[in-house]
Amino acid sequence: MKSLSVENLFYSLSILFISVIEIHCQTDNLQIEINNIKTFEGEIKVSVYTRENDFLSLKDIFKYKIFPPSQPIEVISFSLPPGEYAIAAYHDIDNDGKMKRNILGIPKEPYGFSNNFKLKFSAPKFEDCKFEIKPDEIKNLEIQLNKY
To answer: What Pfam families does UniProt report for this protein, alphabetically (predicted)?
Structure first.
């Protein structure tokens, strides 16, 4: 009788584990490949914005992830409802929580945006970096970290 109970427990745990994996796979509908990581010091900070957020704000963010890089290309994922989004990422190499800038305000640490927007004379706007996630879509993006 005990072996049957253990078997039932094992079977129930297996079903639960598979269900959790399926739910996780179904909800992560945005995958971002961050490449051109030159050093494994500090942390990479990835911020997801909606139209309602103050784009490039460090406080008014829809979702974000912070992680220490361990290889030249990292892949992270988010679970987002259908809609329009824009992404900003930067590599906080010295891990001080701030984007280092020169006297003109130009970033000194590697950064990147959705649509691989390249800085010109000013910071990008939401419209420059926006992309859409449609219902039941899995979106794959690539963000190249660069220095100005």
So the answer is: DUF2141
Q: pLDDT digits over 56-69, tens only? A: 987 889 999 999 99
The torsion angles phi and psi of 43, rounded to 5 degrees, stand at: -135, 150
Cβ pair 86, 55 in contact under 8 A: yes
Q: How far apart are CA 146 and CA 79, in angstroms?
A: 26
| Average pLDDT value for residue range 18-47 | 80
Strand partners, 91: 44
User: Three-state SS for 93?
Assistant: coil
> DSSP E strands: which ranges in 1-148?
30-35, 43-49, 63-67, 74-78, 83-92, 111-113, 131-133, 139-144
Contact yes or no for 116/142 (Cβ under 8 A): yes
pTM over 0.85: no
DSSP-based three-state secondary structure for 100: coil
Chain mean pLDDT for the chain? 86
Tokens of 20: 């959790």
Q: Where do the domains of the chain lie, and which CATH numbers do they carry?
A: 29-144 (2.60.40)
